[in-house]
Amino acid sequence: MMKERLDNLQKNILNACLRVGRSSSEVRILLATKTVSTDIIGEVVKQGYSLLGENKVQELLEKVENLKSLDPEWHLIGHLQTNKVKAILPYISCLHSVDRWSLVQELDKRLNEIGKTLDILVQVNTSEEESKFGLSPEEVLPFLEKLLSIKNLNVKGFMTLAAFSSDPEISRVSFKLLKKVQAEAESKFQKKFPELSMGMSNDYQVAIEEGATIIRVGTTIFGQRTTSDSYYWPEQK
Ligand SMILES: *Cc1c(COP(=O)(O)O)cnc(C)c1O
User: Fold this and answer.
1) What is the residue-wise DSSP string for 158-198?
2) 2-38 pLDDT, tens digit each
3) Calpha distance 237→44 (Å, rounded)
4) Which atom of ligand 1 approaches the CA of 201 most closely?
5) Which residues contact 199 (CB under 8 A, 6 or more apart)?
6) Are 203 and 162 in contact (CB under 8 A)?
7) What is the mean pLDDT of residues 179-194?
8) How far is CA 232 from CA 4, 57, 88, 93, in A?
9) Which ligand 1 atom lies nearest to the CA of residue 202?
10) 109 contacts 82 by C-beta, under 8 angstroms
11) What pLDDT, in 10s, does the model give residues 212-234?
């Protein structure tokens, strides 16, 4: 069943790319593996899907341990509490959820201690939903101005969660806005911010049409989760 779902995902990615004249090599698949058992994750990693994203530090650390022999690449895609930064840094190659200055400071401090740098994405709230984390689009340029002086952090681009909706055309508005933020940032700082992490199971095809370079998909490969997403996406800021 999973093989069929993965083949279907590939086919849909290819078709979305064809519609807008992109190469499918520009789109990386990140598997959002929250709640999925390491046995199942191991199966897909063995089929070549080795970019994995988790929302919570504790869950990521457990899976890192269990999947060590397969050596997948881990990104943290959920909200990161400042007091968890130190624990997670050795295990991730990219953090998708940079959304506040206190987090930047803690990252910088802990990276200094271990002599590492980290790829990051700035999370942008493109849906005006109060419950969502992320900077508002207007806050991004001033934030970047300060962020770009932090040498331990490589700002690779932007991440967003679209509005909750079953209609991918509503998501498209969010994705266009993230693309616009990227263009403004590149123009202002004369620097490339190539990565756009956007699109989930219900709207990744639209995200690709709008320029996604990383799509984050879970349900479409692993099936419905039994744990409510509100556990992973806190209602309160
Ligand atoms: C769970 C999750 C996804 C994937 O969602 P699906 O609808 O299962 O594809 C993507 N991004 C984030 C931040 C998530 O928490």
Assistant:
1) EE--PPS-S-HHHHHHHHHHHHHHHHHHHHHHTS---EEE-
2) 899 999 999 999 999 999 999 999 999 999 999 999 9
3) 34
4) 9
5) 162, 171, 175, 205, 206, 207, 208, 212, 215, 216, 217
6) yes
7) 98
8) 28, 11, 17, 21
9) 7
10) no
11) 999 999 999 999 988 888 888 76
